[in-house]
Amino acid sequence: MRSEVMAIGGVRLFRLALGTLLLLVGTALLLVQGFAWLDLEPRMLRALEGGAMCALGTALGAVPVLVIRSMPVAVADTLMGFGAGVMLAATAFSLIIPGLDAAQAVGFGKWGAGGLISFGLLFGAFCIYLVDRRVSGATPDDLVAVPGRPVIPARIWVFVIAIIAHNIPEGMAIGVSAGGGMPDADSLAMGIALQDVPEGLVIALVLAGAGMGRFKAFLIGAASGLVEPLAAVLCAWVVSVAELMLPLGLAFAAGAMLLVVTQEIIPESRSNGNHRLASLGLCIGFCLMMVMDTALS
Q1: Which of 103, 106, 198, 256 is least surrounded by CB atoms within 10 angstroms?
Q2: What digits encode the pLDDT tens for the residues 191-237?
Q3: How confident is the model at residue 157 (pLDDT cuts 50, 70, 90)?
Q4: What DSSP designation does 64 have?
Q5: How far apart are CA 165 and CA 53, in angstroms?
Q6: SS percent in the chain: helix, strand, coil, step 5
Q7: Is the pTM of this model over 0.90?
């Protein structure tokens, strides 16, 4: 009898997950049609579409939490390493190298372009460092101390807030590339959307594993990517205002992403002892993003 109840519950969860997946796909198609009706400047529209693609990737990644509450640690670490590889390749091939070319295009020599990009990169890394210090010092206990409900540990909320904050540089990178009319803006958006899938899954699984309801964990995981289209459109507008903002914006986004990868994602992927799998995932993600960047640009 108990096995029959569990089987029925499993079928219902599967139907819920499938229905949610179809709903997300349908919503994405409606958004694509809606974007076509907006009277936006082409580069702004491109940034909005790229950011929305990444938000959809995050939402799709959160769907499996409706069926499962956890995944093998080795798989999670491999996916984390994969995401790190994608972001490292995007930093090099989609941000730093085009940033150097853009700096030379506005009149800087090779030394001057290198200095400008280095300044922007270090400034972006420093800004995210300051954000990370504020997030790490957060005390979100008040958010979860509700009588009669499971108390999610503060460290879990800190982890979730940190990932949401780290989505901002990804949206910035998409917006700067699209706003500057870079030829590889679409491949950059696709690569970031790809690495956002395991990111959304990790957030949802962490919350569900800590005692939160499946659907609520899914909603939070899916919503964590909404900062990306906002950051993309804002940065696309900024780089369209001044020509010099394009190389600086690319460098700033590169520095921010580089710090996130080296300080958060890579150490987290190796924290459970699966460093070989995490490194293998990183190499695969790096190569995949490199191929996408060169083939689609």
Answers
A1: 106
A2: 888 878 877 887 787 777 767 777 888 888 888 888 888 888 888 88
A3: low
A4: G
A5: 18
A6: 85, 0, 15
A7: no
Half-sphere exposure of 143 (CA within 13 A, CB side): 13
* Spatial distance between the Cα atoms of 153 and 167, rounded to a whole number of angstroms: 22
Of residues 107 and 27, more confidently modeled: 107
The per-residue b/e assignment along 245-280, b for 16 or more CB within 10 angstroms, e otherwise, is bbbbbbbbbbbbbbbbbeebbbebbbeeebeebbbe
Six-digit token string for 244: 């010099």
Side-chain-side CA neighbours of 255 within 13 Å: the count stands at 22
What is the chain's alpha carbon radius of gyration, rounded to the nearest angstrom?
A: 20
CA distance 266 to 42: 36
Distance separating alpha carbons of residues 88 and 132, to the nearest angstrom: 19
Q: How far apart are CA 283 and CA 189, in angstroms?
A: 19
Structure tokens at 95: 């941000």
Per-residue pLDDT tens for 236-245?
887 776 667 7
User: One-letter amino acid identity for 244?
Assistant: L
Q: Map tokens 């809606």 to a residue.
A: 34
**Angle CA(259)–CA(265)–CA(267) in degrees, nearest 5?**
100
Residue 259 one-letter amino acid: L
**Angle (nearest 5°) at CA 61 between 199 and 222:** 85
